[in-house]
């Protein structure tokens, strides 16, 4: 198996890894409830119903 001819410097190693950092997920405020939600995803509110873009898309489960 081939081995490197020269040692990779710390600077070059760190430049290569500059894009590996994790970014924080995007969040938005729901218009009706005021909760933080992920954009482009349905979310379950406290009443058990699913909401998407501020509109209810499934019925809440009554107990």
What does this structure look like?
The protein is an alpha+beta fold and 63 residues long. It has a domain at 27-63. It has one helix and five strands. The protein has a three-stranded antiparallel sheet, with no helix packed on it. The longest helix is centred in the N-terminal third of the chain and has 7 residues, at 10-16. The mean pLDDT is 87.
Question: Could you list some keywords that capture this structure?
Answer:
alpha+beta; three-stranded antiparallel sheet
SS-based class: alpha+beta
Mean pLDDT comes to 87
What is the N-to-C succession of helices and strands? HEEEEE
Distance between the termini: 64 Å
User: How large a portion of the residues is in β-strands, by DSSP E?
Assistant: 15-25%
Low-confidence regions: none
Shape summary: rod-shaped
What topology, given as strand order, has the largest sheet?
Answer: 3-4-5
Helix content: 10-25%
Lay out the secondary structure.
Blueprint: H1 10-16, E1 28-29, E2 36-37, E3 43-44, E4 50-52, E5 55-56
Antiparallel strand pairs: 1-2, 3-4, 4-5
Short description:
The chain is of the alpha+beta class and 63 residues long.
């Amino acid at each position: 198996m081939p081995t490197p001819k020269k040692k990779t410097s710390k600077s070059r190693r760190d430049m290569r890894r500059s894009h590996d950092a994790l970014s924080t997920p995007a969040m938005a405020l729901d218009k009706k409830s005021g909760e933080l939600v992920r954009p482009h995803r349905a979310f379950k509110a406290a009443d058990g119903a699913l909401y998407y873009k501020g509109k209810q898309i499934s019925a809440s489960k009554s107990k």
